């Protein structure tokens, strides 16, 4: 019979040992899978950040990470790194945090645990990514009570009495202030009374004062809203004054000239005032007559027709060749309509019947003579009528001087007067560089003596 002391002699069945091993493996896999799943879930739902602080007193792993006082995460680890403290924490990524947010250690009370506050809250822009680092210049820690107490103690000890200054710096300041106020009570009283009166007057006129301040605020607001226009106006005014400064002499000279013109105009009006008044009255009578209905209609018709007539004349006349390049003949593309419509327009009684009879009897004749364009040309002038500036010369020396015109011989110029048609007036000139030119004897007689001598020699000119 087996007892509890020989239980090690008991042998489990083979199936039981396999089941135990399988159970242990399944449990281990479940633990590993659960831990891996938890890590994966945390990685997907949280953002891990590293921050550096000068110190992390009373801050421990597991403390809160807050946004606007609401817990959103936990501190994971705190470890020293050189002179700084490296704090790693995470927060739920469903709460967006600005990429440039600060990490501030909060101290709710002297004995409570501390927490990290991320500030400011997110509004828009980029967010803090996973694995981000908050540098030292974006972290803050609270002032420790011991440090504050030591600073206050040091300040008090410095202001207190010493061997060199029995009253201490603060006591000496109080004593100096007391000495300065000694015997000045009446002045201080007068000053305080005046200040009270001034405040009373200001209080009584507070409505007016606030009205002035409100108006001034509205004025400054308007200037702010129209800043661009105000700056542009200031710039334009500066440019205008700069131009006036640069051109003050020209402006003064222009004003002097205007003054002279006004003086001359005043003298002219004084001498001819009656004549000018009479002329203005006559002009008023003329314009009044023109503005009557019938003259006005005629003037309007003339102003309406004459420009088209002048344009047509300019288009058909070519002054360079003295010819009419257009034929002022109505085209006969449909003469039947022209004649019959004229008869119909001139008739009164039976005009419709007259037009039908015209078309009946004249159609065979007018259809035989109709044409699109005139079968003849018209050329009233057959001579060149070009202007002097429209003629190009092979050499500029061949161009006639003022008062002379070309002849049939290049370089020989005849006088250009009202009575020189046909070139029968003597006094012709020769172009420079024409020595040795052979001319007809009759032509030599028309040339001026000086030009003839230069052309053929003095001896021959005297014969």
UniProtKB/TrEMBL annotation:
PANTHER family for this protein: INTERMEMBRANE PHOSPHOLIPID TRANSPORT SYSTEM BINDING PROTEIN MLAD, INTERMEMBRANE PHOSPHOLIPID TRANSPORT SYSTEM BINDING PROTEIN MLAD-RELATED
Domain Mammalian cell entry C-terminal, residue spans: 127-292
Signal peptide: none
GO CC terms of this entry: extracellular region
InterPro entries, per database record: Mce, Mce/MlaD, Mce_C, MlaD_Phospholipid_Transporter
Source organism (scientific name): Mycolicibacterium thermoresistibile (strain ATCC 19527 / DSM 44167 / CIP 105390 / JCM 6362 / NCTC 10409 / 316) (Mycobacterium thermoresistibile)
Keywords: Membrane, Transmembrane, Transmembrane helix
Domain annotation Mce/MlaD: ranges: 46-120
Protein name according to UniProt: Virulence factor mce family protein
TM region positions: 18-38
């Amino acid at each position: 019979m087996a007892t509890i002391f020989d239980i090690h002699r008991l042998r489990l069945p083979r199936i039981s040992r396999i089941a135990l091993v399988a159970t242990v493996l399944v449990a281990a896999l479940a633990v590993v899978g659960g831990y891996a799943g938890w890590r994966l879930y945390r990685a997907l739902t949280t953002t891990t950040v590293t921050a550096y602080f000068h110190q992390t007193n009373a801050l421990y792993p597991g403390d809160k990470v807050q946004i606007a006082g609401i817990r959103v995460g936990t501190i994971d680890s705190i470890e020293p790194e050189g002179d700084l403290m490296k704090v790693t924490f995470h927060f739920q990524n469903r709460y967006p945090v600005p990429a440039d947010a600060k990490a501030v250690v909060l101290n709710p009370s002297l004995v409570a645990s501390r927490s990290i506050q991320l500030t400011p809250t997110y509004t828009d822009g980029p967010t803090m990514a996973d694995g981000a680092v908050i540098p030292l210049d974006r972290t803050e820690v609270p002032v420790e009570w011991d440090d504050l107490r030591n600073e206050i103690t040091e300040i008090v000890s410095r202001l207190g009495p010493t061997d060199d200054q029995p009253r201490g710096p603060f006591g000496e300041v109080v004593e100096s202030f007391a000495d300065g106020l000694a015997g000045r009570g009446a002045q201080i009283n007068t000053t305080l009374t005046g200040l009270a009166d001034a405040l009373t007057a200001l209080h009584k006129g507070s409505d007016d004062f606030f009205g002035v301040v409100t108006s001034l605020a509205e004025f400054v607001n308007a200037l702010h809203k129209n800043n661009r226009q105000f700056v542009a106006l200031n710039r334009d005014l500066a440019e205008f004054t700069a131009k006036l400064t640069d051109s003050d002499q020209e402006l003064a000279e222009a004003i002097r000239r205007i003054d002279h013109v006004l003086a001359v105009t005043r003298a002219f009006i004084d001498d001819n005032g009656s004549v000018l008044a009479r002329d203005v009255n006559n002009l008023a009578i003329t314009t009044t007559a023109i503005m009557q209905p019938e003259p006005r209609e005629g003037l309007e018709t003339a102003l309406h027709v004459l420009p088209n007539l002048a344009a047509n004349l300019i288009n058909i006349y070519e002054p360079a060749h003295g010819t009419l390049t257009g034929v002022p003949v109505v085209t006969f593309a449909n003469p039947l309509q022209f004649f019959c419509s004229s008869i119909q327009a001139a008739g009164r009684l039976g005009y419709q019947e007259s037009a039908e009879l015209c078309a009946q009897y004249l159609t065979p004749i007018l259809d035989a003579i109709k044409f699109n364009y005139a079968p003849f040309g018209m050329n009233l002038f057959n001579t060149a009528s070009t202007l002097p500036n429209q003629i190009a010369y092979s050499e500029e020396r061949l161009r006639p001087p003022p008062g002379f015109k070309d002849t049939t011989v290049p370089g020989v110029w005849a006088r250009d007067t009202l009575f020189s048609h046909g070139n029968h007036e003597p006094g012709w000139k020769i172009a420079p560089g024409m020595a040795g030119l052979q001319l007809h004897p009759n032509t030599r007689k028309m040339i001026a003596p000086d030009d003839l001598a230069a052309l053929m020699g003095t001896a021959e000119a005297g014969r």
